[in-house]
């Protein structure tokens, strides 16, 4: 091998240049060989645990709990360590302490002497769990996860055995001193957080953090600070990204949905969006008009006055009408979208109160549109233009909103290939014959992976580009991603928003899923997609969210003989009657793949006070005979390349091409 390296060094000057730069980091043979040994050792470690979560839709309490218990990983570790040595109630108390250390410590009500014993017992148990979850990582990686305040103590306790001769008294004395110095609480919090962090090596969010539930911003705060995370954009995320970028049509969609679910608080109080111009406009133009279709969903369960609910409904209707106008303008700008049937406002007979949908005339439940000019239905009034501009400025200048959106741009993408798995929120749109459905981008028909790459570029362009024409084009593409028939994030025949508001006939509400969804049990279809992303269909998997799995009707999340896994099981309470459960998550560790189904989560308060964990059922999808090692992962591939480079550097030192600097 060294001879081959030498030949390459002799014939390629750029190799010498690169190795010369590498030599600055490893200036001697000793330095280079030490790093080779270190990297080879890392390659033989078990791969870290990956955690997959999808379609949280603002349900921050459920999300936070699943994140803390790592979909049962923490409880599994506790059972492995303590087995029958602890009662089930003791193991659950320990798990709850790990999940919510500060809150649990505040609830303990025992005497001072009992408290000392409790602290010592809890610390011993927590240290055992910390040792187990840290065992698959290098000391260096574990050390980086330590809180600075307790770094030295944690390293001593986790890396030393309390049973070791001459170390037992030392080990015990550390724990006793922590308690005596009144640092037990702080140390328990620190080690519990460490356990949570080391339980999961990588978090994958398969889209749709936003809309419906009340706490998408809280979830985003968590994700910003998470140690290792990636995000595959969902259709409900892309509208918030586009709204922050300044797309008027997507701003209207965001406000409409938050009003529909009576959740305007997230915009006004948490993101600082000024909705006062909209409230004034709606009061002036829509007071006394028909608001029935726009009454907030679930409003009967909230303690709000009739006046507050009416104001939300007024704003809801006003913004929806503006949305329809702006979307009509956008569709007109882009005939290549082939979405003329979604313009709608120009096929309403405002005198008869009817509308033409798919060539058939329907009676509108209301034809109460005070700001629409039937002769120019897509034209914004001067008041609407002014109000939209004010909203646009507010969205673009919201610091917290844009901090969250920049996280989605920097950590997110349309899809991700990671450790031989393909992660996509929605799908790869396909025709009924199994071919990829094309989407027209810049005058060119694009399909599959190529289409997704180009759409992702346009989405980034819509947020970052300084040129107003290119920026608008990117934002229009983001709107298409939200509701376009060939959008990988949507992929339905239409978004029947207008029909659901104004037509009683249920057949008009139907949104036909792309053929991908009716054929996703077809092994050949999924293999074709995996191959398009340069993956081996015999060993790789595809992971989706987006369409809830109707478990209550007997549907399985495991498709195409296990090649496709669908993990949207109903985190959002709005979907739980339809699915019958409260979400799926996926765990991929060194032993294989495990699908976890979750029952509804009552509340954080119940979890802390009564130790009520989410009831979860784990199904082993793939149990590997040989444990998967770091060498089998994407990181392992990079490390192997580093080893190869270092071997070349050692050869260069020994052959005299580069001089050692000892």
Describe the overall structure.
It comes from Youngiibacter multivorans. Pathway: Carbohydrate biosynthesis; gluconeogenesis. Keywords: Carbohydrate metabolism, Hydrolase, Manganese. Its EC number is 3.1.3.11. Strands 7-3-2-1-15-16-17 form a seven-stranded mixed beta sheet. It is of the alpha/beta class and 662 residues long. The model is unreliable at 1-11 (pLDDT under 50). 51% of the residues lie in helices and 10% in strands. The radius of gyration is 29 Å and the shape is globular. The longest helix is centred in the middle third of the chain and has 28 residues, at 306-333.
* Largest β sheet strand count, sense and barrel closure: 7 strands, mixed
- What is the β-strand count? 17
Strand content: 5-15%
Secondary structure class reads alpha/beta
Helix fraction bin: 40-55%
For the record, give the distance between the C-alpha atoms at the N and C termini, rounded to a whole number: 26 Å
List the main descriptive attributes of the protein structure presented here.
single chain; 662 residues; alpha/beta; seven-stranded mixed beta sheet; five-stranded mixed beta sheet; 28 helices; 51% helix; globular; disordered N terminus; FBPtase_class3; carbohydrate metabolism; hydrolase
């Amino acid at each position: 091998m060294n001879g081959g390296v030498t030949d390459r060094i002799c014939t390629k000057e750029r190799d010498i240049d690169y190795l010369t730069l590498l030599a600055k980091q490893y200036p001697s043979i000793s330095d280079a060989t030490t790093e080779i040994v270190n990297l080879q050792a890392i390659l033989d470690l078990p791969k870290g645990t990956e955690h997959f979560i999808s379609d949280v839709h603002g349900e921050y309490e459920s999300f936070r709990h699943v994140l803390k218990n790592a979909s049962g990983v923490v409880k599994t570790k506790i059972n492995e360590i303590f087995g029958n040595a602890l009662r089930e109630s003791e193991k659950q108390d320990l798990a709850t302490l790990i999940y919510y250390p500060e809150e649990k410590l505040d609830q303990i009500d025992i005497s001072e002497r009992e408290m000392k014993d409790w602290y010592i017992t809890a610390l011993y148990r927590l240290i055992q769990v910390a040792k187990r979850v840290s065992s698959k990582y290098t000391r260096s990686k574990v050390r980086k996860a330590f809180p600075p305040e307790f770094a030295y103590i944690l390293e001593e306790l986790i890396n030393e055995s309390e049973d070791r001769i001459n170390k037992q008294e030392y080990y015990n004395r550390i724990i006793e001193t922590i308690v005596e110095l009144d640092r037990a609480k702080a140390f328990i919090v620190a080690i519990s957080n460490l356990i949570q962090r080391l339980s999961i090596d990588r978090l994958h969010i398969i889209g749709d953090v936003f809309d419906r539930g009340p706490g998408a911003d809280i979830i985003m705060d968590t994700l910003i600070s998470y140690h290792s995370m990636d995000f595959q954009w969902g259709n409900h995320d892309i509208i918030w990204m586009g709204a922050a970028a300044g797309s008027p049509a997507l701003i209207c969609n965001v406000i409409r949905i938050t009003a529909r679910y009576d959740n305007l608080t997230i915009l006004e109080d948490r993101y600082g969006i000024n909705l006062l111009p909209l409230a004034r406009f709606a009061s002036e133009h829509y007071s006394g008009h028909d608001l029935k279709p726009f009454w907030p969903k679930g409003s009967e369960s909230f303690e709000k006055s009739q006046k507050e609910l009416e104001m939300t409904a007024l704003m809801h209707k006003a913004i929806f009408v503006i949305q329809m106008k702006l979307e009509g303008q956008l569709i007109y700008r882009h005939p290549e979208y082939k979405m003329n049937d979604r313009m709608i406002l120009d096929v309403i007979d405002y005198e008869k109160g009817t509308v033409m949908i798919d060539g058939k005339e329907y009676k509108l439940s209301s034809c109460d549109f005070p700001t629409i000019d039937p002769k120019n239905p897509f034209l914004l009034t001067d008041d609407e233009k002014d109000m939209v501009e004010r909203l646009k400025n507010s969205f673009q200048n919201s610091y917290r909103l844009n901090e969250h959106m920049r996280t989605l741009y920097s950590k997110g993408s349309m899809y991700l290939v990671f450790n031989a798995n393909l992660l996509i929120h929605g799908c790869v749109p396909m025709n009924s014959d199994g071919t990829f459905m094309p989407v027209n981008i810049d005058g060119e028909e694009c399909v599959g992976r190529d289409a997704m790459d180009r759409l992702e570029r346009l989405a980034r362009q819509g947020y970052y580009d300084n040129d107003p024409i290119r920026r608008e084009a990117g934002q229009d593409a983001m709107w298409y991603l939200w509701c376009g028939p060939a959008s990988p994030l949507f992929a339905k025949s239409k978004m029947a928003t207008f029909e659901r508001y104004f037509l009683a006939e249920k057949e008009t509400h139907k949104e036909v899923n792309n053929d991908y969804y009716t054929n996703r049990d077809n092994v050949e279809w999924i293999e074709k997609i995996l191959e398009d992303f340069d993956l081996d269909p015999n060993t790789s998997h595809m992971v989706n969210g987006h369409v809830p799995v109707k478990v209550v009707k007997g549907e399985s999340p495991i498709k195409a003989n296990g090649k496709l896994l669908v993990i949207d099981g109903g985190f959002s309470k709005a979907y739980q009657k339809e699915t019958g459960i409260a979400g799926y998550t996926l765990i991929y560790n060194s032993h294989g793949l495990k699908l976890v189904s979750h029952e509804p989560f009552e509340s954080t308060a119940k979890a802390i006070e009564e130790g009520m964990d989410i009831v979860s059922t784990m199904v082993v999808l793939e149990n590997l005979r040989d444990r998967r090692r770091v060498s089998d992962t994407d990181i392992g591939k990079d490390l192997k390349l580093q080893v190869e480079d270092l071997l070349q550097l050692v050869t260069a030192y020994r052959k005299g091409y580069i001089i050692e600097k000892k």
